[in-house]
Amino acid sequence: MTRVRLPPYPCVTDKLRETFASAASLSFSCPDGPLPGERLTGERRYTFGNKTDWSIEQHPLHVACRFAPHAMLVELFGADGLVCHNARLMLVLEWVSGKSSRRGFSKPHVLDHGTASVLTELTFSLNFPTRDLAGSIELSLELFVGAAGKPGKGEHHLANAAGLRLGSLSDPWHLVFNGSGSLFPILHVSHAATAPLWTFQREWEDPTFDEFSTDYVSLEINTSHPSFGDLYGDAKAPYSTPLFRQVLAAWIMLFLHELENDSGDGAMAQGGVTPWQAIAEGKKPEMILPGSIAKAAREFVSHGSLDVSSKSSLLYSAQRWIDERFATSDT
Amino acid sequence: MDYQPLRLGRMQECGSSLLKSLQNDSMVPLDLLVRESIQNSLDAAAGSEPVRLEFQFSEHETETISELLGGEVAKELRSRYQKSKNWQLVIRDWNTVGLTGPLKVDELAFGETQGNFFKLVYAVGRSQDEAHRGGSWGLGKTIYFRIGCGLVFYYTRIKVGADFEERLAVCLVEDERSPGKLQKKSQTGIAWWGSGEDGPVLETAEIDKVLQALGVPRYINEETGTVVVVPFLAEKLGPPATEPEEPGITAAPLAEIPWWHRTYSDYVRIAIQRWYGVRLNNPKFPGAPLNAAVDGVAINEQEVLPVIKIARQLYQSARDRMTGPREIRDPLGGDPIKVEVSSIALRAAVKGTTSVGRVAIAIVNRQQLGMEPPHNNPAPQTILSGSRHKGMTAPIVGFLRRPGMIVQWDDRGDSNGWARRATPAPEGEYVIAMVVPDGELPLYPGVAEDAGLSSGASHTLEGYLRNCEKADHNDWIDPLGQTIVTRMRARVSDSLQRVMPQAAVVVPSLTPFLGARTIADRLLPEGFGTDGRREGSADDGGAGHDGSKASNRSARPRLDIRRLEYHDHGFTLHWRLTWKGKPEASDLRLLVDTEGSPISKESWKTDGLGAFPLALRQATAAIVAPAGNEWSVSVDKRADAPGIRITPKGPKGAAGAALTVEGSLEVGVTNPKGAPVRSVLVVDRVTDAKS
Known about the structure:
Strand content of chain B: 25-35%
Largest interface: A-B, 91 and 72 residues
Radius of gyration of chain A: 28 Å
Mean pLDDT of chain A: 90
Mean pLDDT of chain B: 84
Strand content of chain A: 25-35%
Number of domains of chain A: 2
Shape of chain A: elongated
Number of strands of chain A: 15
Distance between the termini of chain B: 65 Å
Oligomer: heterodimer
Number of helices of chain A: 7
């Protein structure tokens, strides 16, 4: 059985939506913070965080929508339109997050026939505080009956109660915050200048499940240390210095060492395979969840051809691999 | 009553092993008794009415029991207890179904449930198999044998059809190796008394005689339920007089001995609140609430301690599925208490969500807990976990499953605890937290198998947690290779750390995203994480499943709405049907959309909603492709639908033809009560409609 819902009154048609297709555009900014780094990756589809320190986790997002319908909205009034000639239309920028079952609206604009006929441009804005959003959201320009009118001849079939939805004036924009990019779990912390320049932090319980993220494991860097600048390097291409490569190699050695120690008592073994065997030897890969700490360790070991037979050989192979990778990226 | 000793056989359970099987020597016996006996009654709840339970301690004569049992056991009882003052405990429930089911081994049918009677009285040690029940090991009831000399009387009244039936049996479980045992000749230490060789007493007169001797009234009228009588109560069933001290550790100073340590009945009054506080007198509990009384005095709401009332509200807050800050009532009438409810997020533990439940946390002060005059209640750790140490304590975390019994009040704060690393609350304040899992969630694929859950067990989070409990249901311990509980504990401890006021200065940390992105790009493969700068996976809302593609593949024609023209009292709908396979006759029907599901004209009439608001006035249809005269189409109006049947006719033997038919429907709409009517157009193959 195929079902199609039919609107009970005239709504925005595909043809009408096409008319307004190029009339609306979005822009993004972050009040008092880095640029959001948006990139158009598909038709009306944005990702964020390109070549920038901005993240939805740590920064707010301001979305502005410029809508320049010129006088076209006036066509929506009257018997051949969507509302009565003397009713009011309401336009609003709506956001919907399917995953979190949340939605919200910008401040609306309410127009009557007179204002619509002279209107050239409207601006809508949405402000999302830090950590307010996750995953992805959809934005669209939505049309409502703003205020009922008195139906004239041939207008009785039109929607005529404030708040009735008339449809989307635009196809939705997709704002994607959780993508498939990777983040290394590095943290900036301001300790005393005499405290160590960097430390290895672990919080995981089960490396085969827990995420390779700063919630569970991190390379913590003391930004107050006198050598921080030598480690950080150029702000446009941070953490590319020779000192950092050495720190990273030592960190990876510690990271793998902790994982090997964890597996010592065999408590987390599945079918006789410990997480360390899954990491070092690639056995029973299905016991490691994608994106987990153990998965990251497995990637390091396999892609870097790391020699885990001893600490010294591990450090040596990690240094060699990191130097190679950084040299390739530099060129 | 007839003596029914258990003879020694192959793989035979003996009294000595049964008495040890509960695996718990650390919990106060009265706590174990309260936990197990109430659980048995709640598992047998007859409906949604509150389950009533009464604990009654009373003196009894040695001779009364000896006379009932007779024989060698009577002789031993007389010699052991004649000169002492004996106490018995009577536990009686109401609004339970009683001890139902078969009475004897030969009445048990393979694959069918054994029933409460057989499980409680004869199958000591058999495990439970229903996930929502509190017990699982079936060993909990062995506590009855441990608190007395091993003798337990069971009396029950059950409903069988329109009639009632009474049953009575006595069971003795003692250490068969003990020189002081009551059955000198028994090699198993286990025996029953009943009627005949292996059944309970069913005769009213005989039951009456035994109950009168025990001072237990019979159930009357419509009452059903169970009475458990334990005579010759042992000493030292309450908490030890002094706290055990670990050598080399300077213990915190001890508080005065709490008032409820004075008598068994006082202790039971508090134990009921401690373990069943969330279900006690709680009409909002999802299941039959619990009403309890001790020595004839009900535990009413005025008596329930403030910390228990707070814990109950925390449970309610965590069950409501709303996370974030909220407020609960101060049980003593002060300002509302702030509560933080956090989700317990675990990956790959349950299907469809990362949230396995919630923890509700409150920081409460001495006033709110009634620790100041005139109430002078002891510190919450003394009430909840039995610790008598005064002063600061780690957060106290209670965790429980669906039956509503607190598995444990954990105030350890060490690396094994739920509150590890959380700083103690400031002087004069206490942190109480309640962990409520969403037990109904199905387990993540593979978890049930890896955790060793049997095929008969429930493959839900509730089933997993139940499987994690030992016989005394006193803790959750992950099976080998699984870490759901370990990770739940870690997330709860994270939540506690976030909520706790920090004594030390917190050093803020910040992820340098550009640096983190640069390093990851060099070391990790693309697509490893969830950073937003690259296109996400299909589930981020972009590459959704297109339902219309699926319908294209079927032989059902694809429906497109070409145009909708609205008039004052209806609309004209211009449609298109496209067959990809062999064109088959299809129906177009109009339904009325509702908040639930669309309603057909027939259902509208059946539901007595008046005149159907949609009526078909005119219909047209014509073939637009393929060109030529090979194919024709007929249209039949169907006023009952309302709708039309479109029947394409082609040349004989014609196989699939990309047939496209366009047409229109003129529909009249009457708006009941002036509300807009949304119509739904449905296309069905005639063959579908018939089936």
